[in-house]
Design goal:
The protein is mostly helical and 361 residues long. 39% of the residues lie in helices and 1% in strands. It folds into 2 domains: 164 residues, Cytochrome Bc1 Complex, Chain D, domain 2 (Orthogonal Bundle), CATH 1.10.760.10; 154 residues, Cytochrome Bc1 Complex, Chain D, domain 2, CATH 1.10.760.
Length: 361
Amino acid sequence: MKKFAVIGILLLSAMLIMQACVEHTANPDDTYDFQTPPYFPKIVSPTNNPLTKSGVSLGRMLFYDPILSQDSTISCSSCHNIANAFAEDKRYSVGVGGATGDINAMAIINLAWQQKFFWNGRATSLEEQALGPINNPLEMHETSENVAAKLSRSKRYAPLFKQAFGSANVTPEMIGKAISQFERIIVSNQSTYDKFYEIQEQAFTAEEYAGFRIFFTERGQCFHCHGANGTLLAHNLDTIFRNNGLLTDQEMIGKGLSFVTKKTTDDGKFKVPTLRNIELTGPYMHDGRFATLAELMDFYSSGIKQNANLDINFTKSPERLEQYGGLGLTSIEKQQVIAFLKTLTDTAFTHNPAYQNPFKK
């Protein structure tokens, strides 16, 4: 009996040790004080990945470190450049070995309020999104498991993972959690538009205000997709996917949301991006086909392609669509809208020291 009692105690002790390794309770002093604008909606934050100082700091390092890629040449920041408001200045991302895809990298702005990620919404958490590029053969061309092994062997990273997650034995889940913590604290809210919205002062010029009026009325119809949530400049940023007439029926088959849902009614529907810092985030659209805001406005004014899933906000005025091929904006109106869009530029965002490359002194 004594022998079995001793074995039982040893087994219980082993179970408790294993449980302690799995469950990591963050130090209260390590809690990250995430201050969000009071006029922004309530944040969407997972309970199993609370923000911590050590987690955010680690995620920032991983974001800028090419160690995540197969040949240590590509980092997250390679396609999400802070100078471009964490967007890409090229039409398509260039991955390991010069591989290119056919999608323009989305800007990393105010992701804490989002629930679906990538242009087709295939990731349902920021943690999942963070691991996507690592496993993409056209991007980092690695596997999460290989990267976890590299980081576990690293004299730099093993102690940092121990501090943030309680174990130096790195897992893909821990990598996703760390990177997503950093991405979650990236907030833009210091633009001219915010001055108008937050303190209700007339911060616009006459031209900017005219563009604001076009944007938020049926003349421009922009607000239906980008202004339902006026603070974030997107339609809730999570579940809204729209077909904006960018593709013909044949071109849109299997593209956009339908890649995930496999429904033909979702063909050509792409995630509505935030317009914050749009002056800095070109080229535009999921395939980066428009290099300038002027090209973008020309498209919405006269370049919309009618297709089976075209958004109702375009089809509810069939005569205007038929006559102009879009909104039929005048050259002056297009310039006014562009002037308004530039009020969304937030230079404090792109110069925020908390978002900069930690390896550069």
